[in-house]
Specification:
TIM Barrel, 9 helices, 8 strands, single chain
């Protein structure tokens, strides 16, 4: 599927939901994609990308940014506290703030360097033990704690369980965001981004539908 097809499907979903057309940001998830595929999406004019690992992003984006300086890259995957400083230098936003220890580390570094990327708190809407994120029942308190540290919390992020209807999880995330005065909703991937847009997603994360299947070898 082409980039323009995905954009047009997003616009159609926005219009159907009575939302402002063009309000949803498309994050092209470039993790584990060959550089030539990323280069061709950059050449098409797309400027917002998502990576899962600090190390991979560090090896890829400084060079691309020399040629495409207006590119923005967001961290979508889990962040270890020992990589937090590097992440703060590499990314315009981090979508995976998921625990107090990481919040404390980011707050300390933000004071030290005088700036911080936009932050999304990851909510484990399916309460899956193997998945990162705060459980919904703990989300309000964690959001409040993060705000009290002066962290730039712009929204929430979720990854619904694979075997459940994602719309239920998107609706839950929206409800938590609304009652905490947060406007950002990072939700929806290649298979379900239209349903996420219908429920108010501000950022959808689409990889394989743009770049083709990843080679995990």
């Amino acid at each position: 599927m082409s980039l323009s097809e995905i954009q047009s499907r997003i616009h159609k979903a926005e219009a159907s939901a009575g939302r402002e057309v063009g309000g949803t940001q498309l994050i092209a998830v470039s993790k584990m994609q060959p550089n030539e595929r990323v280069q061709s999406v950059l050449e098409e004019g797309h400027r917002l990308f998502g990576e899962n690992k600090v190390q991979e992003a560090a090896g890829k984006w400084p060079k691309f940014r020399e040629d495409f300086p207006d590119t923005k890259v967001h961290l979508l995957g889990p962040l270890q506290t020992n990589k937090a400083r590097q992440a703060m230098q590499l990314f315009e936003a981090i979508h995976s703030l998921d625990r107090p220890k990481l919040a404390n580390t980011l707050a300390r570094l933000a004071q030290e360097v005088g700036s911080c990327p936009d932050l999304f708190i990851q909510v484990n809407t399916g309460e899956e033990e193997q998945k990162a994120g705060v459980f919904p029942a703990e989300a309000d308190a964690f959001i409040s704690d993060c705000k009290s540290m002066d962290l730039p919390i712009v929204g929430l992020m979720c990854i619904p369980p694979v075997n459940e209807e994602p719309s239920l999880h998107f609706a839950l995330l929206k409800k938590i965001a609304e009652r905490n005065g947060l406007s950002g909703l990072s939700m929806g991937m290649s298979e379900d981004f239209e349903r996420a847009v219908a429920l108010g997603a501000t950022h959808v994360r689409v990889g394989s539908a743009i770049f083709g299947a990843r080679d995990y070898r």
